[in-house]
């Protein structure tokens, strides 16, 4: 079992600086949708708050994206639309 280190520093609402032994990254967003950028990669995570259901995808910043990753992008957008609709419907109460 190896040792891990991670520290999150809140810069502003929805913006965090993440420090770990492997490097530094920045997170943008909050519940429902988060984008994390660092070490040449971008990780996008969309989820339905309070359910534990989420979808995450990682891409490199150099533009190399295999063709088989394209369907995963469609799934991410569909989940994002569902999250936005739920927030809109539940926020109106």
What is the overall shape?
Answer: globular
The side-by-side strand order for the widest beta sheet comes to: 1-2-3-4-5-6
- Structural domains: how many: 1
Distance between the termini: 47 Å
Count of DSSP-assigned helices: 1
Average pLDDT, rounded to a whole number, is 78
Strand content: over 45%
Please count the beta strands (DSSP E, at least 2 residues each).
6
Report the sheet with the most strands, covering strand number, pairing sense and barrel closure: 6 strands, antiparallel
Low-pLDDT sequence parts: none
Structural class by helix and strand composition: alpha+beta
Commentary on this structure:
With 93 residues, the protein is of the alpha+beta class. The protein has one domain. The chain contains 1 helix and 6 strands. Strand 2 and strand 3 form a beta hairpin. The longest helix has 22 residues. The relative contact order is 0.12. The mean pLDDT is 78.
What would a concise description of this structure say?
Helix content is 24%, strand content 46%.
Layout of helices and strands:
Elements: E1 6-12, E2 15-20, E3 23-30, E4 33-38, E5 41-48, E6 53-60, H1 70-91
Antiparallel strand pairs: 1-2, 2-3, 3-4, 4-5, 5-6
List keywords for this structure.
alpha+beta, 6-stranded antiparallel β-sheet, 93 residues, single chain, 24% helix
């Amino acid at each position: 079992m190896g040792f891990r280190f991670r520290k999150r520093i809140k810069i502003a609402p929805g913006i965090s600086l993440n420090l770990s032994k492997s490097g530094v990254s920045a997170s943008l967003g909050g519940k429902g949708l988060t984008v994390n950028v660092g070490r040449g990669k971008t990780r996008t995570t969309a989820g339905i708050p309070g359910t534990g259901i989420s979808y995450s995808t990682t891409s490199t910043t150099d533009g190399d994206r295999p063709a088989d990753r394209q369907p995963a992008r469609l799934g991410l957008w569909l989940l994002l639309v569902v999250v936005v609709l739920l927030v809109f419907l539940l926020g109106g109460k």
